[in-house]
Design a protein that fits this description.
Layout lengths: L12 H14 L5 H14 L2 E4 L4 E6 L2 E6 L2 E4 L6 E6 L5 E5 L2 E4 L7 E3 L5 H4 E3 L5 E12 L2 H6 L4 H18 L3 H5 L3 H18 L4 E12 L5 H70 L1 H17 L34
Antiparallel strand pairs: 1-4, 2-3, 2-5, 6-10, 7-8, 9-10, 10-11
């Protein structure tokens, strides 16, 4: 990737003519044949040009664009009648904001310069009135060399001005903490879309490739205070996350216990209702039998009640008012024999 415009080439036609004029003034005895040969050389040297593989040539005749030339060897009218301007249409050009690349060594480390002279374009005011230092790179291609050269005056500077204005607006609509952390990709995406729209409206012939935020930091003078605020926010987020984690663990547990209690209560209520209905049905059945045979039903009920009662008794005492001595009793059930006493 290279920056535009590229460095200038060799001497122009005017410089060559001026040098030749001075040489003639110093050497007035030059033969006519040399003058003719020099004229032919100048005509031949100014009648062709070469376009590199990554470039497009724009040919102008007396300043008017007449054609464009693809890569290769081409011919043109000599003596400045037609001039050529080479535009790097196949290369990705870049503009740096907030820093400048000093040099790039293949296989080595790239050196950058982010001095105070570049801070004017990188210091920005955010939506919460904080100042942050935003450094970014804009990469673009030239799609239409004629529009790039002639539709806008000083197109590279126009691109820089538009990019800086849009980036300041996008950053100014967001909180400083968001730009420093979670919104970096959104800032770059929104800025790219808006810059491309403006460049298309201006008919600059440029298509953006990407915008990348290189480094987003608070200013150096307030960096310690910002770090403390950032640490406090991280502690806050960590505490909130821990509380949320505990809530997510305790709330389902409490809901489960509550549901269990509700289910047990509903089960107990249903059991009591069913039991009461069963007792009522049993009472009605006994009552119907009692109406048909009262004495038999009364005796059966008495015997059933006494059978249930006596089944839980371990010892039996027989009391007789007329008995004066102990009455031996032989148990007929299982277990050890038990002697039961009787008396008044």
């Amino acid at each position: 990737m290279q920056q535009w415009p590229p460095p200038s080439g060799g001497p122009s036609l005017e410089e060559m003519i001026e040098k030749f004029r001075k040489y003639v003034q110093k050497n007035k005895s030059i033969p006519i044949i040399m003058i003719a040969a020099l004229a032919v050389l100048i005509l031949a040297g100014t009648s062709w040009f070469t376009v590199q593989p990554q470039e497009t040539g724009v040919v102008q005749r007396f300043g008017k664009v007449v054609r464009s030339a693809p890569p290769g060897l081409h011919f043109k009218l000599p003596l400045g009648i037609e001039t050529v301007r080479l535009v790097p249409t196949a290369r990705v050009l870049k503009e740096e904001f907030g820093f400048r690349t000093i040099d790039t060594i293949p296989g080595g480390r790239t050196r950058y310069n982010a001095g105070d002279s570049n801070k004017e374009e990188s210091l920005m005011l955010t939506g919460d009135l904080n100042v942050i230092d935003v450094q970014w790179i804009l990469q673009y291609r030239i799609e239409d060399p004629i529009r790039f050269l002639f539709y806008v005056r000083d197109t590279p500077k126009t691109i820089r001005d538009i990019t800086e204005a849009v980036m300041r607006r996008v950053v100014g609509n967001r909180l400083g903490s968001d730009v420093l952390t979670v919104d970096r990709v959104e800032v770059a995406t929104e800025a790219r879309e808006e810059i491309q729209k403006i460049l298309a409206d201006y008919e600059t012939g440029v298509r953006l490739v990407t915008i990348e935020l290189q480094d987003v930091t608070p200013p150096e003078k307030v960096r310690p205070a910002f770090n403390e605020v950032n640490e406090a926010r991280q502690d806050k987020e960590r505490t909130i996350n821990q509380a949320q984690e505990q809530a997510n663990r305790e709330i389902p547990k409490a809901r489960g216990v509550a549901q269990q209690e509700i289910s047990q209560a509903e089960g107990y209520a249903q059991a009591r209702v069913n039991r009461a209905k069963g007792e009522a049905n049993r009472f009605e059945a006994i009552f119907n039998e009692y109406q048909q045979a009262p004495e038999v039903t009364r005796r059966r009920m008495y015997l059933e009640a006494m059978g249930e009662y006596l089944a839980d008794i371990k010892g039996i005492y027989v009391v007789d008012d007329d008995q004066k001595a102990l009455v031996p009793w032989l148990p007929l059930g299982t277990g050890n024999p038990t002697v039961t006493q009787g008396g008044k």
